[in-house]
Amino acid sequence: MARDNFSACLAATLKYEGGKSDDPRDPGGRTNQGVTQRTYDQFRDRKGRPRADVYGMPSAERDEIYRTGYWDVVHGDVLRPGEDLAVFDYAVNSGPARALAAWHAAGGAGAPLETVIRKVCAGRLQFLQHLNTWPVFGKGWGTRVASVEKLALGMARKPAAAPASKASTAAKAGAGAIVVATGAAAGGHDWIGGDHWMTYLIIGIGFALVLLLGLIAALAKKPKPVGEWVGPVLPPAPLPLPTQRSTPLVADPLKAGLAKLASANSAWDAAKADIAKARADMRAQAEALVALALESEKQEAEIEAPAPVEPVTTPPIAPPVAPEPEKEAAA
């Protein structure tokens, strides 16, 4: 763990973030030593101080901003040497969230140290190359990433300093005890392997010694009589006689199936009877409607039929009588 590596990493970052700038092509705007005016205003607001020009920022405030806003966020104190620089400088340039995501994608604490550094820097360069401002600042960014990668690999290859964690063992008569004092890893990170294999080996040997001493102490003690361990041995209680059950524990599957089948047949018969009754009722209603219709038609026919006309008889007409000739002459 690189608990005292913040100053070295900050110095490496300030080589590229140092100085004042206000390039209109830079989205950060007015900047001093890598701290934008907006970031400086937010810092002073949290401190309850009046806002001021970032160009007049003291170095103490600059260091606090870099530590609390970037180093602590990426848990720089628990990252391995070189790994801390690669992640920290990435966070300053592109944000802590993106830097941590790149570290996890590179394998994190479970991957070899140099592999993580190379993958983090490669992913960072690939991200920068897809930005719209790459044609403007790409050359400087590429140089910075390459320089950080080289410096980080150099830090990783340096011989590790004396570990901060110490292990000590103390055996006590009869039981035995191990006291292991190790440095706690901040931020919830813990690594198995790497520079900590000796610590875990000592811990494993210590636990083995504890178990061995405990076993020796247990064997050295005089065994107690059986009565002191379990008390007086009593005769077993008589088993209760089985009682007659009204129903068997397991029903006959065949009988159960036949009963279900009979119940289904009864339900089917009742349904068929209901259907037959419904059909008969419907047939009766249909016949009644047909009879009613015939009766109605009959009545309408009687009303509309004309009354019979009785034939008219006329009496026969008598033929005319011719006048007598004599009477016509006399006249």
Short description:
This protein is mainly α and 331 residues long. The protein is built from eleven helices and five strands. Among the domains are: 6-157, Chitosanase, subunit A, domain 1, CATH 1.20.141; 166-184 and 194-219, no CATH class.
Can you put this structure into words, describing what you see?
The protein has eleven helices and five strands. By secondary structure, the protein is mostly helical. Among the domains are: 6-157, Chitosanase, subunit A, domain 1; 166-184 and 194-219, no CATH class. Strand 4 (166-170) and strand 5 form a beta hairpin. Helix 1 packs across helix 4 (83-94) and helix 5 crosses helix 6 (113-129). The longest helix has 52 residues, at 253-304.
